[in-house]
Design brief:
heterodimer; A: 488 residues; mainly alpha; Formate dehydrogenase/DMSO reductase fold; 64% helix; globular; B: 165 residues; alpha+beta; Alpha-Beta Plaits; 2 domains; 4-stranded antiparallel beta sheet; 5 helices; rod-shaped
């Protein structure tokens, strides 16, 4: 008696998910027209988007109102308690600068390394960078209490003939952050120009068409434009790469230039840069996972892309974890009693809970990414990203507050607790960041249209028999489908 | 005046460009929805001069960064015993940041200048399909060679060929 063959299960059909080649291919995207249609279609506002924007604006207004209150009543409302004169504002400044770093890593450094998985996520990351640095830049101004005096930090000719002190880390910060914001915003905008031209030529609303025409600068997709564009993009990436390393190094000098226990160490620049990139990747997951789901862009930001980004996240987590451990080792090996006392105090002192949140969220939870199953699970990546954001905020808390509250002399020791003003302005900063980001994702393409077209096979009169298997570098690769059922 | 043609396929566009070049018609503009090496290879363009803008901008930025820090320190000295007034190591931060800033902005300016953007008019010799999925070739041509150009473009599978003034 003949027996019917048992249908093969999904696992049997594809026993191992394709990781090697599909990060450079988009099997769910057929042609250039589909790219325009899918990504352009994601710009239509939805009720959910309006709701999220309303929440973000409400949080921002709450924070702005609280700042106004603080300006009127003074910095005494901010929870500072001498000698702890750096609190939530400086913590949040470092946190938001760090968030911005992954954007440049993904858009510039991974571009130079020709990492294919960056193509569909870098636009989001770049926009995140610009808005995060905009947010970070607010905190030193909030922190100085008299924000109208901020321009004193900028070197400008004045009748008093006074110039800023270029040996001060505060002035280095001004130069580093303003350069970073300018270059990141420029990088984002020039990368957008060809995509804005696509939107311009598809727009039906005459007012929108006119605005897009101005923003696209008359871009026409000529070979000459692309040639100069490619060269410019390469050099901007080459400039952005050392810039991103320098910016958080300069931020770390705010601490490392002081002689306080826990701060005066040469490990700070690489430690801060690694932490910044780690936290930024966490925020990229927080943003990109809901976007791919709600905009139905799973066939662009594929599981393979998330998998590759998760490996990067795991790597940076291990670098950060190593830096945490090296700090303890250096304190022990230095035989400096103040350093040793500080690091004991860090994990068993008044703020032990903050240190353990930091260690757990940044060192322990990311180890789950050794599991391929979890790396390819967007829900877990999203949850993990929230823990990473939390852990990295507390990392900066652990760096700043225990040092200032526990300096050399016991009579200097004091407590610190953020006030409702600090917390409100911190919450308001998230509202400010997400307000800009939500406005961005419904006005401009959240995925780079022109770069995605580069990895979509072009239409040919006589197709190459292995066309689907030619990757962006021109190498032939055996075609493997993406994870079955991924787009169902 | 000239002729603009729209192609659906990349290889057809490449073939048309090659054929036009064989006929000594080289003053053409090629449009492509995304940069393609195949087109770059057949067009054989010169190296982009944007790199010179980058080099000059970066050099000027670094010089300005060091100069402003050194000059202002000498102009209003903050004297600390045993310490130099103009300190090169911290001033390298200012020099580096301004090198990146001016170098990056010069690079973008170089792209704008060489690509001739912003453009005010874009109606002649161009079609909105070129930002969508079509490839395009614009050949400025006199009436005597217009017929040859049109025939060449059609022979290689141009979806649409039209004369423009």
């Amino acid at each position: 008696m003949a027996t019917a063959a048992r249908p093969k299960t999904v696992a049997e059909l594809s026993p191992r998910p394709n990781v090697a080649s599909a990060n450079q291919q988009l099997p769910g995207v057929a042609d250039y027209e589909q790219v325009d249609r899918d990504i352009g279609g994601s710009l239509t506002p939805t009720a959910g988007w309006f709701g999220a924007l309303a929440i973000a604006i409400a949080l921002f207004l709450w924070g702005a109102g609280t700042w106004t209150y603080q300006i009127y009543w003074g910095l005494g409302n901010a929870g500072y308690n001498p000698p702890v004169m750096w609190g939530v504002y400086i913590i949040s400044f470092v946190f938001w600068v760090g968030i911005g770093h992954a954007g440049t890593l993904i858009s510039a450094i991974l571009y130079l390394f020709r990492a294919g998985f960056r193509t569909t996520i870098y636009r989001c990351a770049e926009a995140m960078t610009v808005f995060a640095v905009m947010t970070a830049g607010l905190f030193p101004i909030i922190h100085i209490g008299r924000p109208w005096k901020f321009f004193w930090l900028i070197p400008y000719p004045n009748w008093r003939l006074i110039w800023p002190n270029f040996k001060s880390p505060l002035v280095w910060d001004v130069f580093a952050i303003s350069t970073y914001l300018t270059v990141s915003a420029t990088f984002l905008y020039v990368g957008l120009v060809p995509d804005i031209a696509v939107l311009r030529d598809r727009a039906t609303n005459p007012v929108r068409k006119r605005i897009l025409a101005v923003m696209s600068l008359g871009w026409r997709n000529s070979e000459k434009e692309w040639r100069h564009f490619a060269r410019m993009y390469l050099f901007l990436a080459a400039f952005s790469t050392p810039l991103v390393l320098s910016v958080h190094s300069v931020v770390s000098f705010d601490f490392a230039m002081a002689i306080n226990p826990g701060w005066h160490t040469t490990i700070f620049p690489p430690y801060f840069v690694a932490g910044a990139i780690f936290s930024g990747i966490g925020m990229v997951f927080t943003i990109i996972i809901p976007i791919r789901k709600f905009f139905r862009l799973q066939h662009y930001v594929t599981i393979n892309h998330l998998d590759a980004a998760a490996k990067l996240c795991l790597f940076t987590s291990m670098v950060v974890g190593c830096a945490y451990l090296v700090e303890f080792w250096v304190a022990w090996y230095s035989a400096n009693q103040y350093e040793q006392k500080y690091f004991w105090n860090r994990v068993f002192g008044e703020w032990w809970w903050a240190a353990w949140i930091m260690l757990t969220c940044n060192m322990v939870f990311p180890l789950s990414l050794f599991s391929q199953r979890l790396r390819r699970n967007p829900t877990w990546l999203f949850i993990l990203s929230i823990f990473i954001n939390l852990g990295m905020w507390f990392e900066r808390f652990v760096i700043i507050v225990p040092t200032l509250s526990h300096e050399f002399e016991p009579w200097q020791w004091n407590h610190y607790a953020p006030s409702w003003v600090d917390i409100s302005i911190l919450v308001g900063s998230f509202g400010w960041f997400f307000m800009w980001f939500l406005l961005f994702i419904k006005q401009l393409p959240v995925i780079a249209i022109a770069e995605v077209k580069e990895i979509v096979p072009p239409k040919l009169r006589s197709p190459h028999p292995h066309e689907d298997a030619i990757d962006v570098t021109g190498r032939h690769q055996a075609y493997e489908p993406d994870t079955p059922g991924e787009f169902d | 005046m000239g002729i603009v043609a729209a192609f659906r396929e990349l290889d057809a566009t490449v073939d048309a460009i090659e054929d036009l070049k064989r006929q000594k018609i080289t003053d053409m503009t090629v449009y492509t929805p995304t940069p393609r090496h195949e087109i770059e290879q057949v067009v054989e363009p010169p190296t982009s001069p944007v790199r010179r803008f980058t080099l000059i901008g970066g050099f000027c930025g670094a010089c300005f960064g060091y100069w402003i820090a050194v000059w202002t320190s000498d102009y209003w000295p903050l004297v600390v015993g045993g310490k130099a007034i103009a300190t090169w190591i911290p001033f390298t931060i200012i020099g580096f940041e301004l090198m990146v800033l001016i170098g990056a902005l010069s690079t973008v300016a170089g792209m704008f200048i060489n690509s001739r953007v912003p453009k005010i008019t874009m109606t002649v010799g161009w079609d909105p399909r070129f930002t969508h999925g079509h490839y395009g070739i614009w050949v400025p041509s006199t009436p005597d060679r217009a017929r040859v150009v049109e025939e060449t473009l059609r022979r290689h599978g141009a979806e649409d060929v039209r004369h423009e003034n």
